[in-house]
């Protein structure tokens, strides 16, 4: 058995092999104990250095930034209110705000000496927004804000408390963006803006039965400098923080409740949570997209234009037509729209086409991966939660192919001229079994009027007769003794429901048009 060679020679027998205790293998002399211990220590240190040299113990994570290479953001934004103490480590801080209370946001120049010299003594524009924190609500932000606007007319989600602001100029708000404000400020001077948030987190919860958890918001600031054209479009910096908004004094109570809960926790549990900071520093983020908002003039109240003809079925009427009556041009809008039902077997592409045809363009991105069966499975409550009250109910009715009950139903039949064959014939049998003379059976068409006007009735009759409206000059109703009474709105409004008329056409000798007579 060989021990530790090259530890030295034995002082007694000059042998060179030792065991682990330092005893000479030849004479068992103990004089080499110190030599072996020294050698063991050197081997251990050598082994430790070899182990630490393995890749697993090397700091090779390229994602860890080097302090010398880190880039300093040009600005820093500070919300002057405390963060919640009930936030775990490695989670984003959350700050509680009171509804309508003014909060200071300091705009600080964070550049080091010599950094971004082109910003020296320059004026920049900042846009402050209150947006949703949850990604699900971000996709339908416009619909959620429109629903809030419907319930809170003439109110804004975000405002500036101008008398308290310092160092800002040209504060502006846009009527189309209720959750955004903008202003200018000089980066070389002290600047603070005081903002007020008027919406509360529980206003956007799906079901409001009391005690529900409110949705979190974000306050985001985007700062821009001027381009070569003098417009503030060149992005410089963006930062945001997470907030929750409570009714007046509710944020103070929530902060106190969180602090008391943390005081009851053990020291070991407290180590898992962040301390409460006196101010909230906004963290860097990507800029808010410019096309995040839909034009409210086209989205709040959906409209149906006459440029698209793919909405109409084979028997549908045009949505806008003109014809001459009493030498005046009259435009007939489409008051009654027929929804083409969505099939459960419709593909995702078919669903997108259906949404566009039925004026739900703003939700096409939201339902990108929905098939026909997926969309039809959504309940009324689901659609209201996703699309808001107005569009949610409209989409639900469209999916269920629900139409508005007509105000007046009229049955019309085209009069058969002499010499023409009737549409249907019925042969009568005499008592002796012989066939009698044929009797004509006239087929009537049902016209459903949403507006009890002469214009709408004329338009629907022209559709049944396949006669262009421009060729119809006058419409009369045959009265007593065969007189012709000019059709008017008052006359139509006094028609009994399910009235029956035979329509005859008379050629106008003075033009290429026709006169219609209701008998």
TrEMBL record:
Xref: PROSITE patterns: GRH_CP2_DB (PS51968)
Predominant localisation class: nucleus
Residues of the Grh/CP2 DB domain: 71-308
Q: Which domain of life is it from?
A: Eukaryota
Q: Please give the residue ranges the record annotates as the region Disordered.
A: 249-275
Q: Where in the cell?
A: Nucleus
Q: Which InterPro entries match?
A: CP2, GRHL1/CP2_C, SAM/pointed_sf, SAM_3, TF_CP2-like
Q: What GO cellular component is one of the record's annotations?
A: nucleus
- State where composition is biased (Basic and acidic residues): 249-273
What GO MF annotations does this protein's record show? DNA-binding transcription activator activity, RNA polymerase II-specific; RNA polymerase II cis-regulatory region sequence-specific DNA binding
Instruction: Write the record's keywords in alphabetical order, separated by commas.
Output: DNA-binding, Nucleus, Phosphoprotein, Transcription, Transcription regulation
Q: In which family does this protein belong, per the annotation?
A: Belongs to the grh/CP2 family. CP2 subfamily.
Q: What is this protein called?
A: Upstream-binding protein 1
Which species is this record about? Pygocentrus nattereri
Provide the taxonomic classification. Answer: Eukaryota, Metazoa, Chordata, Craniata, Vertebrata
């Amino acid at each position: 058995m060989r021990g530790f060679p090259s530890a030295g020679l034995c002082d007694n027998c000059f042998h060179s092999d030792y065991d682990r205790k330092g005893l000479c293998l030849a004479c068992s002399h103990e004089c080499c104990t110190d030599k072996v211990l020294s050698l063991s220590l050197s081997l251990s240190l050598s082994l430790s250095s070899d182990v630490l040299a393995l890749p697993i113990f090397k700091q090779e994570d390229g994602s860890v930034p080097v302090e010398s290479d880190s880039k300093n953001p040009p600005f820093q934004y500070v919300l002057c209110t405390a963060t919640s103490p009930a936030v775990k480590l490695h989670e984003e801080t959350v700050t509680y705000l009171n509804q309508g209370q003014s909060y200071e946001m300091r705009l600080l120049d964070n550049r080091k000496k010599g950094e971004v010299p082109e910003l020296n003594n320059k004026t920049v524009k900042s846009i402050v927004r209150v947006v949703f924190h949850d990604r699900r609500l971000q996709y339908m932000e416009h619909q959620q804000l429109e629903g809030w606007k419907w319930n809170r007319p003439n109110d804004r989600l975000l405002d500036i408390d101008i008398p308290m602001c310092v160092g800002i100029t040209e504060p502006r708000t846009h009527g189309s963006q209720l959750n955004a404000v903008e202003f200018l400020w000089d980066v070389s001077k002290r600047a603070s803006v005081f903002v007020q948030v008027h919406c509360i987190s529980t206003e956007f919860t799906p079901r409001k039965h009391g005690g529900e958890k409110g949705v979190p918001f974000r306050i985001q600031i985007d700062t821009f400098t001027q381009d070569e054209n003098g417009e503030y479009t060149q992005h410089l910096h963006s930062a945001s923080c997470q907030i929750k908004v409570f009714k007046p004094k509710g944020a103070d109570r929530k902060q106190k409740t969180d602090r008391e809960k943390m005081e009851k926790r053990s020291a070991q549990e407290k180590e898992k949570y962040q301390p409460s900071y006196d101010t909230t520093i906004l963290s860097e983020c990507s800029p808010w997209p410019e096309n995040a908002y839909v034009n409210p003039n086209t989205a709040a109240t959906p409209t149906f234009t006459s440029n698209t003809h793919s909405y109409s079925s084979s028997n549908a009427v045009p949505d806008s037509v003109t014809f001459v009556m009493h030498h005046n041009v009259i435009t007939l809008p489409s008051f009654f729209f027929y929804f083409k039902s969505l099939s459960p077997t419709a593909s995702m592409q078919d669903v997108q086409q259906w949404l566009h045809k039925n004026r739900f363009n703003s939700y096409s991105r939201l339902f990108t991966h929905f098939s026909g069966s997926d969309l039809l499975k959504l309940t009324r409550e689901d659609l209201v939660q996703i699309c808001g009250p107005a569009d949610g109910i409209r989409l639900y009715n469209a999916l269920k192919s629900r139409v508005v009950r007509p105000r007046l139903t009229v049955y019309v039949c085209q009069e058969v001229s002499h010499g023409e064959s009737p549409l249907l014939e019925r042969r009568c049998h005499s008592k002796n079994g012989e066939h009698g003379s044929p009797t004509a059976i006239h087929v009537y068409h049902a016209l459903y009027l949403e507006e009890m006007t002469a214009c709408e009735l004329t338009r629907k009759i022209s559709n049944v007769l396949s006669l262009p409206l421009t060729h119809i000059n006058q419409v009369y109703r045959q009265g007593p003794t065969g007189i012709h009474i000019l059709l008017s709105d008052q006359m139509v409004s006094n028609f009994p429901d399910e009235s029956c008329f035979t329509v005859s056409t008379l050629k106008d000798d003075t033009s290429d048009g026709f006169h219609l007579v209701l008998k």
